[in-house]
């Protein structure tokens, strides 16, 4: 569809009197409007089913054979036409009974005959704006779904490609760990245990990622997740340098949620805070507050911070900020974080002071 076609607003005029159709079209004509005329209810239904881009129906109530109420009911009962806004144009007195019946059948407004030109134009202008708002919203949702699918495919490919070499590395590490020289050296034995534990945990995460992408259209298992335990495990398995301290504030909750998704969010934020920290004594603090429907978490660091102009841009796909950190990111992680949070109705934001650090906030639904 061309840009010009996308900006066109189609209106279906329905009246059994041809002169009324001509008069109404003349009253509403504009450069970006297309009009369809129907002289009966049956003709109106055929036109509406044939033209999926109709945004508004101006529907006369009093017509022979099939009145406007019946036409509205049939339009609303069909999935292909139920989204169309309907304005009843009627000479019937607007008493409470008739108005209620019209709204029950799907009308969104009434216009009494004889029509007031200014009022009619003003109301149609409102519904035209509403139509384009809805179109833009549908397009935004479609674009978001497309990005979600791309990310799921990307995650599947990465996870699949990592799993085979990691399995080989685990096998080799297991053989090395069984060597007598390792078994007889307590320090080396402990270090090998940590490495094997981390690699096995990473394998489980990759397997979970593969399961997630394979079952993206299936609801994921909801289970009790002890956030304090989750943070403790991540803090150990992310191997922060000795100069970076990870702590929690207050009592973190136990949530009924999908463990993998919440783990991905915290892992992304904590690993970024570790990666980009530029201080001799690094600090990462995790905490949260119960806000009723949502639990509001935060991950605070004392790293390089983020310029105000970059605060929104960092959450977009493939966007990166300029900083003096030696590590360079892909611009994917924070976008995945944003999608995971917004998927269950939460919000994300960041507060930051350049040179002093950043605090990332996100809302996570209790269940």
TrEMBL record:
CDD domains in the cross-refs: HisKA
A Pfam family recorded for this sequence: HATPase_c
EC number: 2.7.13.3
The organism's place on the tree of life at top rank: Bacteria
Key words of the record: Kinase, Phosphoprotein, Transferase
Reaction equations catalysed: ATP + protein L-histidine = ADP + protein N-phospho-L-histidine
Keyword rRNA processing: no
InterPro entries per UniProt: CheY-like_superfamily, HATPase_C_sf, HATPase_dom, His_kinase_dom, HisK_dim/P_dom, HisK_dim/P_sf, Sig_transdc_His_kin-like_C, Sig_transdc_resp-reg_receiver
Enzyme category, top tier: transferase
GO CC entries: plasma membrane
Keyword Magnesium: no
Molecular function via GO: histidine phosphotransfer kinase activity; phosphorelay sensor kinase activity
PANTHER family: OSMOSENSING HISTIDINE PROTEIN KINASE SLN1, TWO-COMPONENT HISTIDINE PROTEIN KINASE
Descriptive protein name: histidine kinase
């Amino acid at each position: 569809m061309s840009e010009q076609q996308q900006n066109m607003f189609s209106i279906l005029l329905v009246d059994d009197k041809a002169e009324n159709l001509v008069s109404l079209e003349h009253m509403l004509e504009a450069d970006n409007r297309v009009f369809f005329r129907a002289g009966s209810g049956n003709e109106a239904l055929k036109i509406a089913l044939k033209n999926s881009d109709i945004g508004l129906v101006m529907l006369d109530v009093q017509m022979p054979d099939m009145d406007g109420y019946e036409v509205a009911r049939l339009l609303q009962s069909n999935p292909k036409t139920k989204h169309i806004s309907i304005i009843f144009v009627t000479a019937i007195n607007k008493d409470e009974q008739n108005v209620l019946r019209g709204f029950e059948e799907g009308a969104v407004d009434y216009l009494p005959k004889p029509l007031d030109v200014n009022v009619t134009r003003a109301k149609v202008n409102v519904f035209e704006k509403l139509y384009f708002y809805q179109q833009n919203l549908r397009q935004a949702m479609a674009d978001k779904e497309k990005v979600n699918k791309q990310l799921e495919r990307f995650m599947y490919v990465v996870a699949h490609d990592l799993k085979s070499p990691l399995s080989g590395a685990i096998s080799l590490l297991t053989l090395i760990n069984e060597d007598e020289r390792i078994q007889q050296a307590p320090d080396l034995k402990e270090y090998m245990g940590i490495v094997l534990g981390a690699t096995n945990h990473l394998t489980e995460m990759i397997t979970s990622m593969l399961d997630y992408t394979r079952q993206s259209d299936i609801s994921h298992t909801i289970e009790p997740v002890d956030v304090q335990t989750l943070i403790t495990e991540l803090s150990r398995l992310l191997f922060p340098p000795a100069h970076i301290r990870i702590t929690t504030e207050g009592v973190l909750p136990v949530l009924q949620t999908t463990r993998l998704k919440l783990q991905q969010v915290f892992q992304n934020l904590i690993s970024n805070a570790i990666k980009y920290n530029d201080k001799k004594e690094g600090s990462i603090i995790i905490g949260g507050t119960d806000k009723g429907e949502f639990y509001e978490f935060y991950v605070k660091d004392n790293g390089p911070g983020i310029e105000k102009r970059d605060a929104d841009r960092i959450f977009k796909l493939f966007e990166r900020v300029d900083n003096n950190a030696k590590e360079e990111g892909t611009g994917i992680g924070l976008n995945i974080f944003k999608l995971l949070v917004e998927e269950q109705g939460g919000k994300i934001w960041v507060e930051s002071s350049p040179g002093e650090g950043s605090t990332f906030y996100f809302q996570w639904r209790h269940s």
